[in-house]
Write a structure and sequence with these properties.
Blueprint: H1 5-17, H2 20-27, H3 31-45, E1 50-52, E2 58-60, H4 62-83, E3 93-100, H5 104-118, E4 122-129, H6 131-139, E5 145-149, E6 157-165, E7 168-172, H7 185-188, E8 192-196, H8 201-211, E9 218-222, H9 225-233, E10 239-241, E11 256-260, E12 268-275, H10 282-298
Parallel strand pairs: 3-4, 3-5, 8-9
Antiparallel strand pairs: 1-2, 5-12, 6-12, 7-10, 7-11
Helix pairs in contact: 1-2, 1-3, 1-4, 2-3
Keywords: DNA-binding, Transcription, Transcription regulation
InterPro entries: LysR_HTH_N, LysR_subst-bd, WH-like_DNA-bd_sf, WH_DNA-bd_sf
Family: Belongs to the LysR transcriptional regulatory family.
Length: about 325
Amino acid sequence: MNLTLRQLRYALAAARYGNLTEASRALHVSQPSISMAITQIEEFFGRQIFVRQRGAGVSLTAFGQAVVIKARQVLAEVEALEALADDTALPSGEFVLGCFEDLAPYCVPSILARLRGKYPAISVTVREEGFDTIGRRLDDGAVDIALSYDLGLPATVATTVLCELAPQALLPADHALAGRDAVSLAELAEEPLIMTDQAQSWQHVLELFHLRGVRPARAVRTGSFELQRSMVANHFGIAVAYSRPYGDVSYDGQPLVRRPISDPLPLQRILLAYDRKSALSAAQLVFIEEVKAWFAEVWPTPAAEHPFKEPAQAP
């Protein structure tokens, strides 16, 4: 063979981390070893697979993305072949999970603890991403699997739907609408609307109001979900959100409440996404099954008005 499995593994690590230094640390090899492997692959093809950046950063070329897809398939097949030697061995390996930044704190640590208890030889690197970056990370190979809402993902990915959620209103605990069983968007539109300044997120929320033919009196954007909750709790306005943390208390200790929205609105899906052209490794397949099981046990149904149930303890 003109290409070696070691070279392919090194190139995949460089694509995954976007940085030769980080890739070398993850693989416990020297940075020149990673660089040499990339050079050898590029000499074999006679084309660049990476664009080098200052500070040891790298990004895939369009041709490099095609190479990475095929390399993943080759290594997944080799892994499956090696597994035939011991059909009792537990899956092992590593991959990168990209998770939408507001969703990650509520589910990823618990899922990883569950995975570690069953499959200790699987290593998952987590990258928090925004709606504007998570799709690109899947495309360029920096992320192997994405966990996100169904916003901003390219049409080329395969998806597994984990659950569907209805939007809910966030209100100060002593707000006049807080005692209601449900509130309408028309009522919420009379209040200042606090939104997160995340690409596609605030546009999606405004579209919900547009669907009901109403417009918020005033809209204010914040940088994060937790700042949004704190602004609501401190009487700067109301919010519409899908994320449902366990406690109804903001970071600064102020109470707030969640109320269902009475208008018929489309549900938002939480899903796993992965490149449909790439073969999933054994480690990725068992991870997907663990994520599906966690959501089936913990996350609420669309009709539920309460936060999700206490998760089961990891094995």
